[in-house]
Amino acid sequence: MANKAVKRLADYQSPAFLITHLDLTFELDDTQTRVTAVSKLKKNGTDSALRLDGEHLELVSVELDGKTVEPRFENEQLVIDVAGDSGELKIVTLTNPSTNTALEGLYKSGGAFCTQCEAEGFRRITYFMDRPDVLAIYSSKVIADKEKYPQLLSNGNLVECGDLDGGRHFATWQDPFPKPCYLFALVAGDFDILEDSFTTMSGRDVLLQIYVDKGRRAQATHAMTALKASMKWDEDTYGLEYDLDRFMIVAVDFFNMGAMENKGLNVFNAKFVLADDNTATDADYDRIAGIIAHEYFHNWTGNRVTCRDWFQLSLKEGLTVFRDQSFSADWAGSSATRIHEAQLMRTAQFAEDAGPMSHPIRPQEVVEMNNFYTVTVYDKGAEVIRMLHGLLGKAGFRAGMDLYFKRHDGKAVTCDDFVDAMADANDVDLTAFKGWYSQSGTPIVTVTELWENGQYGLKLSQVTPPTADQKEKGPLPLPFAIELLGHSKQVLQLQGAEQTFALGHFDEKPVLAPLCGFSAPVKLVFEQSDDELAALMEKAEDGFVRVDAAERLLQRLVAAWLEGQEHPALELWLNALHGIASRPLTDAFLDAELFKVPSVNAMLGWFENIDLDGLVAARTRLRSQVRERLFAVLHDRYQMVKDVKEKGARALTNSLLVLLAESLENAIEERYFQARNMTERQGALAAAVAGNLAISDKLLSDFDDKFGDNLQVMDKWLMLQGQRSGALKRMPKLTEHSAFSWNNPNRTRSLIGVFIAHNPEAHSDAGYQWLSEVLPKLDSINPQATARMVGPLLQWRRFDAKRRQSLEALLTGLQTPTTSADLGELLGKALAKKD
Ligand code: 7MK
Ligand code: ZN
Questions:
Q1: Pocket test residue of 317, 369, 377, 788 for ligand 1, highest count of atoms within 8 A of CB
Q2: Residues 83 and 23 in one domain
């Protein structure tokens, strides 16, 4: 296995040199791109050894102050002795973009050149101090064939362009803002451009451009609208104005992640830019707006103020996710937005924290940085910021943000610097709160009701169980929002391990709605009666509480079923659904959530040990109970909403179709063929697949006929194929299908990633066998994308004895001399002996 050293937060040292300026020249060529990097160095201490990172590069020459030097290699770094206090270093290297299937550094995406440098991709472009605390002023001259690559882009402002011999041309860009190398970007290609402009709060005009594949300009209009709304929102909410004359977005097909906030030149996975009603669902539209906002917001939270080191990743990501979530809630939000955020936390994040990869939002040890772009750093990070926002209030939080920018603009800083700015601006002590940055794991909050002589109160206590990375835990301050049904709402601040709260006099014991709005990223233990849960499910004001109450009822029911017993929760759940479906419709988005049977993945979080077959059977049984008992009333509701041209109605219709699929085969077929947009079409198709209906084959093949030439849309098809019953035996054919490609991570994630995460067939002997063939192949092509797919397999210790044995064998077999550092780190952690 590729052996890479562990890096520790505790070992941080400031850089031995500063690089104040970097002038880059790219002579772009498919297989031999020549990069000339001229940097101005300044010693930053007494060490005279300049150590530069570099990978997959062919070194041509090194000159220091005009004289050729012979560098040495130490620990995979290029080392140059610099005698004086400053100097000018010129390095020439060659790189091969065509064979770069890892999609880090400079690579070809379709016919275009593009780059991805975060976290440590710049070292595949030239030898450099590839760390975020080295901030330089960049200029980049890009040279390429004019006919094939008419557009040459990089960060900042275009300062010069012109023709060269041999049919080539060039463009020179200058970025006036000092930046770390992970924010560098270059794109060269032949695109269509959607243009617009934005006038900032101080009256400057900014040119906005979205570069897309030829013929796709019209599909970028939603992204453009979202961009302008984001720019306005950041001015209105935080007083933050855009700072360059031009803002560019490029949509590319080959991209490992969602998008990237390179200064002035965001690069996006095309699926998060392009949309029209015929090809994108309502959820796609919302996701696009959220990601456009996220990358735009990074211009301040990430670029103007950046991270000192990669352990501080949540400084920019947790904060920016919180900002994009707030934007989405304001802009296009529904009552389900917050529920979806909570669901992601409770499924993916809680599982990550309970597994071998557990880490705090500020990790303390990292092997491969790519493995730490996690739901913990991002989404739990955002929950931590949300708690701060709640604690300080809107105005207090804004004061903290203002002070943060005043102190740290143009600098590379730490999470502590951020929390200190919040504390100082509000004159509060946040020392205990900082525990959220250093402690991993999910606190379990136990709620005990106190009810005596008409006095109602609560005792809250918390413990955090040990995690794979950290044995000792302490209590953390957390906001516990409650509603007393029919009475008041308030937020209780739990400060220590245990606290009691007196809540006043009542004639009858009130019904408690706990953890409103998912006010803290914690698990709840609360022996609330089944009847109270049913009441919350129907009547609580808070949407999250209603969906959570349904889940808590179902958890009791499924636990009983797994033991071969019955449970009264079944009747209560069905009655509550009946009540909701019979009353006048008030919130279709919320009902769309309530009329879903939790996925097997959601159920995994309910139990420590995974009885996979039992959970699959329980889910099937729940669905058939709903159909048998509630068909009439749910079908009435379906009839009522199915033709309403409104987003909430479409969401509710799709939930009802999935719930009733086996009884609605004809309606599903009709809806599929008469769909007015992709939300309806995909909803019908998903229902056919969820119900494993005979009609599925016909609909899937029609979808292929209609959309086979649009691979972005075909990802939806691949995802359904990956999820579908019988997927495993079709895999050889599916991977040969023209919509699939081993080299494109959108395709592999859709088919194989979804299969691993959502299809129980992955957990069969034949499934494990197939994965043992496919995963090494994927890893050799694209380590980062592969590492992001194997998460569910790392939970092997939670499965039954037979699967445990097979999974251990599968994971062990993946550890070979050619395994990537990315996958290797995950396997090593998952297989480590437990003490
Ligand atoms: C989101 C990093 C980038 C995982 C989720 C994103 C990445 C990975 C987008 C890539 C981002 N900085 O803006 O956070
Ligand atoms: Zn981000």
A1: 317
A2: yes
Q: Distance between CA atoms of 510 and 436, rounded to whole angstroms?
A: 32
User: Three-state DSSP class for 683?
Assistant: helix
Long-range contacts of 770-776 (CB under 8 A, 24+ apart): 770/728, 770/731, 771/810, 772/810, 772/813, 772/814, 775/814, 775/823, 776/814, 776/816, 776/818, 776/819
**Residues 47 and 78 both lie in one domain:** yes
Q: Is 658 helix (H, G, I), strand (E, B) or coil?
A: helix
**What local confidence, expressed as pLDDT, does residue 835 receive?**
64
Contact call for residues 797 and 761 (beta carbons, < 8 A): no
Q: Supply the CATH number for residue 246's domain.
A: 3.30.2010.30
Sign of the torsion angle spanned by Cα atoms 93, 98, 99, 104: positive
| Strands 523-525 vs 444-452: parallel, antiparallel or unpaired | parallel
| Active-site residue, from 104, 120, 295, 593 | 295
> Do the Cβ atoms of 484 and 513 come closer than 8 Å?
yes
* CA-atom Rg of the chain in angstroms: 27
Asked if 193 and 232 touch (Cβ cutoff 8 Å), the reply is no
Burial level of 653, CB count in 10 A (0-12/13-18/19+)? buried
- Indicate if ligand 1 lies below 6 Å from the C-beta of 295: yes
Nearest-CA residue for ligand 1 atom 9 is 259
DSSP 87-147: EEEEEEEEE-GGG-TT--EEEEETTEEEEE-TTTTGGGTSSB--STT--EEEEEEEEEETT
Domain edge (last residue) among 402, 421, 438: 438
Asked if 449 and 458 count as a contact pair (C-beta separation under 8 A), the reply is yes
Domain boundary among 410, 438, 466: 438
Q: Which domain holds residue 157?
A: 1-190
Low-confidence spans in the chain with pLDDT less than 70: 1-3, 835
Per-residue pLDDT at 444: 98
- 373 in contact with ligand 1, CB cutoff 6 A: yes
The answer to whether 291 touches 272, Cβ cutoff 8 Å, is yes
Within this chain, do residues 104 and 32 fall inside the same structural domain, yes or no?
yes
Separation CA 750–CA 739 (nearest Å): 11
Length of the chain in terms of residues written = 835
Would you say the CB of residue 104 lies under 6 angstroms from ligand 1?
A: no
Atom of ligand 1 nearest to the CA of 294: 13
Alpha-carbon dihedral angle through residues 626, 628, 630, 632, given to the nearest 10 degrees: 140
147 has catalytic annotation: no
Contacts of 144 (CB under 8 A, 6+ apart): 26, 27, 28, 113, 152, 168, 169, 170, 188
pLDDT at 311 (0 to 100): 98
- Are both 12 and 134 inside the same structural domain? yes
Cβ–ligand 1 contact at 258 (below 6 Å): yes
Q: How many domains does the chain have?
A: 4
Residue minimizing CA distance to atom 7 of ligand 1:
257
* Of 74, 68, 106, 59, residue with least CA distance to 89: 68
Residue 67 C-alpha from the chain's centroid:
47
